[in-house]
From TrEMBL:
It comes from Electrophorus electricus (Electric eel). GO terms for cellular component: collagen trimer. Pfam families: C1q. Residues 69-90 have a biased composition (Low complexity). SUPFAM superfamilies: TNF-like (SSF49842). Residues 1-107 are annotated as: Disordered. It comes from the Eukaryota. It is found in: Secreted, Extracellular space, Extracellular matrix. The keyword Secreted applies. Keywords: Collagen, Extracellular matrix, Secreted, Signal. Its main location: secreted. InterPro entries: C1q_dom, Collagen/C1q_domain, Tumour_necrosis_fac-like_dom. This is C1q domain-containing protein. The keyword Metal-binding does not apply.
């Protein structure tokens, strides 16, 4: 028979792990830890643009701003419609004399006159000096002599008109020194008579035409301020 002493025996081999126990209740929140001691990282790259948001409601109208700086000169606009005619401006200074123009086409020669007397009983035996000029622009009639002198050869028409008072009257129209036409009026006492004559003549240059009382026995030719005796002539054709 084997006996056992009083000393403990040697430890046995460890046993197998037991099954995990049930989860215990959550522990209390721990305090924040101290900041890390590492170097801060670089900023990240910009993210992609987001989608366009919805249109917002109109804002409140702001106060009028200060005028901006003058902008650059714009392009010339289209020509507008013509405005109304303005008031006439002051007369300008006289310009310089222009160059002589080309010689024009020769004009048609003219010759015409009308003259009269306002005083009665002109001297007989000499051309009547019709000294009141109505028209004599070419000066072919000379009031100092009573003669019309032809400057433009051609066919002419002449006429004269006389008033008669106080005596009989005989009047003749002469070409050069030759009588061409006579007119006679036998005076009626108490009346103011009138007589006239006309003729067509062909004249050459320097031919003369005039009216004359041939003699003093029949010189009742009367004229006054409102009773005129006249002598006229004009070129018909040359």
């Amino acid at each position: 028979k084997k006996s056992f002493g009083s000393e403990p025996g040697k430890s046995g081999s460890p046993g197998r792990d037991g099954e995990p126990g049930a989860m215990g209740p959550p522990g209390l929140k721990g305090q924040s830890g101290s900041p890390g001691i590492g170097i801060p990282g670089k900023p990240g790259e910009n993210g992609a643009p987001g989608d366009t948001g919805p249109v917002g409601s109109p804002g409140v109208t702001g106060q009028k701003g200060e005028p901006g700086a003058k902008g650059p000169t714009g392009y010339t606009g289209a020509t507008g419609p013509m405005g109304p005619t303005g008031a006439q401006g002051p007369r300008g200074f006289q310009g310089e004399r222009g160059a002589t123009g080309e010689k024009g086409v020769p004009g048609t020669p003219m010759s015409a006159f009308t003259v009269s007397i306002l005083t009665p009983y002109p001297p007989s035996g000499t051309p009547i000096k019709f000294d009141h000029i109505v028209y004599n622009s070419d000066h072919h009639y000379d009031p100092e002599t009573g003669l019309f002198t032809c400057q433009v050869p051609g066919i002419y028409y002449f006429s004269y008109s006389m008033h008669v008072n106080g005596a009989n009257a005989l009047v003749a129209l002469y070409k050069n020194s030759d009588p061409v036409m006579f007119t006679y009026d036998e005076y009626n006492k108490g009346f103011l008579d009138q007589m006239s004559g006309s003729v067509v003549l062909h004249l050459n240059e320097q031919d003369t035409v005039y009216v004359q009382v041939p003699d003093d026995e029949a010189n009742g030719v009367f004229a006054a301020d409102n009773v005129h005796c006249s002598f006229s002539g004009f070129l018909i054709t040359n």
